[in-house]
Design brief:
Number of helices: 7
Radius of gyration: 22 Å
CATH topology of the largest domain: Methane Monooxygenase Hydroxylase, Chain G, domain 1
Number of domains: 2
Structural class: mainly alpha
CATH class of the largest domain: Mainly Alpha
Mean pLDDT: 84
Order of helices and strands: HHHHHHH
Strand content: under 5%
Shape: globular
CATH architecture of the largest domain: Up-down Bundle
Largest sheet: none
Distance between the termini: 83 Å
Number of strands: 0
């Protein structure tokens, strides 16, 4: 009986020690990623944040930071995925909605910059802009006293104008 208790105690201590070491490693990776982001080295930040998620995939802050780094690196699909994964952990964190909308909007803008854009790509960009607008509205709905509410309402208005103009374009090109 004593031997079983001793083995259980050793295993418990080993698990706790591993968890503590893991938390320290995650924090160190996140701190290093923040340093890289401040220097504008988004690729290195992305690498550190992905390694952090590999060690602990329960920290929504890491997904948020990964999304920010990926947006800055113009890796919009990665950013969108990171924000959406983080939202699954903490859907009440309003920063996800705003930042996701920015990544979606910038992705759509990048698609639209192509001079030889296909009709399907244009439709995809419009859909992505609609998703961005929806996320901005969610942000304002949750963050009712947002200091940047006027700026966000202006951005929503710009997106609505774009969508309306695109609808006219689509009608004229499909006839």
């Amino acid at each position: 009986m004593k031997k079983a208790l001793l083995i259980a105690s050793v295993l418990f201590i080993a698990v706790i020690s591993t968890a503590c070491i893991n938390n320290i490693a995650v924090q160190e990776l996140n701190n290093k990623a923040a340093e890289y982001m401040q220097k504008g080295d988004y690729e290195s930040a992305i690498n550190r944040l992905q390694a952090s998620i590999d060690l602990d995939s329960t920290m929504y802050e890491t997904y948020y930071n990964l999304g920010i780094a990926a947006t800055n690196a113009k890796k919009y699909d990665m950013a969108i995925e990171a924000f959406e994964d983080g939202m699954k952990i903490n859907p009440d964190y309003t920063g996800f909605y705003y930042s996701l909308a920015i990544a979606q909007s910038e992705k759509a803008d990048e698609i639209l910059e192509n001079e030889d854009i296909s009709f399907e790509d244009r439709k995809s960009a419009v859909k992505t802009k609609q998703e961005a607008m929806s996320n901005l509205k969610k942000y304002l709905n949750i963050e009712q006293n947002a200091e940047d509410a006027d700026e966000i309402k202006e951005l929503i208005s710009e997106i609505e104008t774009f969508i309306n103009e695109s609808a006219k374009f689509d009608i004229n090109t499909t006839k």
